[in-house]
């Protein structure tokens, strides 16, 4: 009976030692192993065996700042020996920062990081999440404090990149890689927001007035160009009409001159016994009659006193033309 009890105790101790000496490490996790209180090795994914009573995993206690169901941030403490190597996100509460032009703002940031060296993350710093949290707060104050209000509102990408570079350089000795920093909210004070809204409305009104003025200016330019083109076309029409009229008058004058020249030739070549002076007098008399009757209100018909003489001249002209 005693032998059975001893064997049971030995089997129980062996099973307990087996359980305490065999460790299965999941993917993307690591375990720090210490031998007699000193760092020995880092266990990666797979099954591993530890020497009982000489080797043991190193336990760490980290505190996290997490948002609870009441939308308030609370600090949680966790003790473990399996170190998660995956990328994690750290949501920080709103921080009060002061810009270079002495404006206090509330800034909320998100931080993405992952552990690249578990040994340094354990032995170089006591609490990695809390250290990253405090370092981010101070770095955020320094970066925002070097910018004016307008720059901090419109330069989020530049601020994110500057924060990432500064934090990555500071956390490199901790075996931590900062992959990304994002500013969620940048809230200036209420009076500043009201002033910014007024400024934005004034700027929009100014742009509207400028656009309206540009439209009126363009419309006036187009109207003036249209009037100029119309005047040019009208002037061209008048000029062409005058040219055509002048050409007609010139052709009429040429025809009259040719007719007069023919008449003079006929007079010169008239046969004896014919009076050329009466013929020329008849021509000049006929030319003068239209000028005597000019005017829209003139209804008087002028008949020469020497009607018989005029008839004789016309008869003489007819005779001369018939002989030609």
Walk me through this protein's architecture.
With 324 residues, the chain is α+β, with helices and mostly antiparallel strands. The protein folds into four domains: 13-57, no CATH class; 86-188, 2-Layer Sandwich (Tetrahydropterin Synthase, Chain A), CATH 3.30.479.30; 190-256; 270-324, no CATH class. 55% of the residues lie in helices and 23% in strands. It is built from eight helices and twelve strands. A hairpin with a 5-residue loop joins strand 10 (95-98) and strand 11 (104-115). It is rod-shaped and about 175 Å long.
Global structural class = alpha+beta
> Whole-number average pLDDT?
80
As residue ranges, the low-confidence spans are none
Strand content: 15-25%
Radius of gyration: 58 Å
Distance between the termini: 179 Å
Secondary structure: helix percent: 55-70%
Short structural summary:
This protein has 324 residues and is α+β, with helices and mostly antiparallel strands. The protein contains 8 helices and 12 strands.
What key attributes describe this structure?
alpha+beta, Tetrahydropterin Synthase, Chain A, 12 strands
Could you give the topology of this structure?
Layout: H1 2-21, E1 22-25, E2 29-35, E3 38-43, E4 46-49, E5 55-57, E6 60-67, E7 73-80, E8 82-84, E9 88-91, E10 95-98, E11 104-115, H2 118-123, H3 128-145, H4 149-154, H5 156-171, E12 176-187, H6 190-268, H7 276-292, H8 307-323
Antiparallel strand pairs: 1-4, 2-3, 2-5, 2-8, 6-7, 9-11, 10-11, 11-12
Helix pairs in contact: 3-5, 7-8
């Amino acid at each position: 009976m005693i032998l059975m009890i001893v064997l049971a105790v030995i089997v129980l101790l062996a099973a307990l030692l087996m359980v305490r000496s065999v460790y299965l490490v999941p993917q993307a996790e690591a375990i720090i192993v210490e031998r007699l209180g000193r760092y020995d090795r880092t266990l990666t994914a797979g099954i591993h065996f530890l020497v009982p009573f000489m080797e043991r995993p190193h336990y760490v206690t980290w505190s996290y700042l997490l948002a609870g169901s009441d939308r308030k941030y609370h600090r949680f403490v966790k003790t473990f020996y399996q170190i998660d190597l995956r990328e994690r996100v750290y949501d920080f509460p709103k921080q009060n920062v002061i810009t270079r032009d002495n404006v206090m703002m509330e800034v909320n940031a998100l931080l993405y990081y992952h552990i690249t060296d578990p040994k340094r993350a354990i032995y170089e710093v006591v609490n990695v999440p809390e250290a990253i949290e405090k370092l981010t707060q101070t770095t955020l104050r320094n970066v925002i404090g070097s910018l004016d209000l307008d720059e901090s509102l419109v330069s989020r990408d530049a601020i994110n990149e500057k924060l990432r570079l500064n934090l990555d350089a500071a956390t490199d000795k901790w075996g931590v890689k900062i992959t990304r920093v994002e500013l969620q909210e940048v809230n200036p004070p209420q009076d500043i927001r009201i002033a910014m809204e007024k400024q934005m409305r004034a700027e929009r009104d100014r742009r509207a007035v400028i656009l309206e003025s540009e439209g009126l200016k363009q419309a006036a330019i187009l109207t003036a160009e249209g009037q100029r083109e119309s005047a040019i076309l009208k002037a061209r029409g008048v000029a062409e009409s005058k040219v055509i009229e002048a050409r007609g008058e010139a052709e009429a004058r040429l025809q009259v001159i040719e007719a007069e020249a023919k008449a003079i030739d006929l007079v010169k070549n008239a046969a004896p016994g014919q009076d050329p002076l009466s013929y020329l007098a008849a021509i000049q008399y006929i030319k003068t009659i239209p000028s005597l009757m000019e005017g829209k209100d003139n209804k008087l018909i002028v008949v020469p006193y020497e009607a018989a003489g005029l008839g004789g001249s016309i008869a003489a002209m007819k005779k001369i033309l018939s002989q030609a």
